[in-house]
Amino acid sequence: MSQPPGATDRPIRRRFAADGRVRSGCLTCKARKKKCDGQASDLDGRCRSCVRLGLVCEQPPLRRVPVRPPRRKARRDDEITSSSKDENGWRAASQVAGSSTDGDEDGDEVAEGTGTLAGSGSYIPDDSGSWDGIERVLLRYFLDHVAPLCSILQQDGNSFCSVLLPMAIVDPSLLHALFAYASVHVDTASPAIPVTPEARIKFESQVTRGLADAIKNNAVTESTIACALVISTAEVIGGDTSRWLLHLQGAGHLINHFGIPRLLRTSDGAFLLRDFAYHDIMASLSTGHRALVNGVYWVQDVNATVKSADSFMGLGHHIFTHLTEISAFAADTADLDLSSCSDRRSRETLRAEDMAQALRSEDLRLQVDPTDSYIKALIHHAEAFRFASLFYLYRHLLRFSDAGAVYRLRMEDCVRQILHHVSQVPSNLFCEIGLLFPLFMAGIGCGDNTSMIQYIQNRLTCIETWTRFKHVGRARDLLQLLWDNGRTDWELMLRELDWNLSFA
User: Fold this and answer.
1) Confidence (pTM)
2) 420 vs 102, 114, 354, 493, CA distance in Å?
């Protein structure tokens, strides 16, 4: 058959092979450098990859068509200005969402070498007011500001990111827990970020639903445990005095269900164990109850040499092993007083003396660089915990021991030692976050010494100012109530206030 003239000159229109990659793919898949099928779900508009991984499916923004002035042709530079305005608007939003790999350009960083927040933040969600907009903002805020504050380490403190974020990619419940955590902290640290109560309720509801489904279906994983820990810690820094303990107890049940040996098999599981152990031990000291899990369960080798600092315990790993015994001793002898059976009081006093001697003589077993200034600060951090633990033990012995005068003298020495070691930790250093328990014990034992009281007040105020952790303010307020009323019975005061206070 003959072809019409010029048919052979027409370019042949070819179709690319269907390999699953489309130009209209979502921005989430593009950021992950993965193929996107481009098929939006009828349910929520997400592509199949984002649905499978439980990710927010971010679609490219619609471009506006510039309005041309009537009766004259729009100048090209006007078009460029209008187009670049939209592109810059999206670029600013994507930088807030963390899609920029060149570092922060808005100045909201944690100042290097200190714990001070360098900027107040310019995180503004998109005009649409969608949940996705505020979620992107909160995730970026968590990475930049909250995660570094979760560790007492000056360097490599972002293990929270390296452990929790990979879990959150495949577990939407944990991702919403991070949103909730950031939303609690942002209230006081950066009020320019508008997080509505409805948004926070939505995040917490997603976490609760995920935890309930995991327990119901017997599908508890490491990320399930992480959810409970994150929510508990979020309640703590928000100044809560009741719910945080319930979440921590829930995390303890999940750990026992999942199995400590299974957690120790992976580095992520061991990290979660140390996280829980630190908060569990601090909670046992402030509530007067036994630790939820017994023994030194968070490490493979109890007597191992300390070669590097831990995110939670610093260089005081071996000091914390004694704290678990002290909290158990306090729980066992809570019913004793000077009118109790003398034989039992004598036995328990000898038991406490053995514990005190072991704690006083405990070697930190360090294999670290002693000339490093930050390592020196961490050593003083560990020593402050040693003497705060001794003070806690001696003070408990005053309830039923006949040698009250001896223990009061020892407690006075412990207070001096605590304040000496705390003073060697520079202000705004990250490990200062871990000094709440030593400072509180020193506040209980300083009596009416005005200079000590002023120093403790100033140090706690400094910690609260740069961390924005409200539970530090709760501890300072409790000390102030005790000082104003000439009291030292802080456990009774907590019961009167109906508070559960965390020292973590």
Assistant:
1) 0.75
2) 43, 21, 25, 28
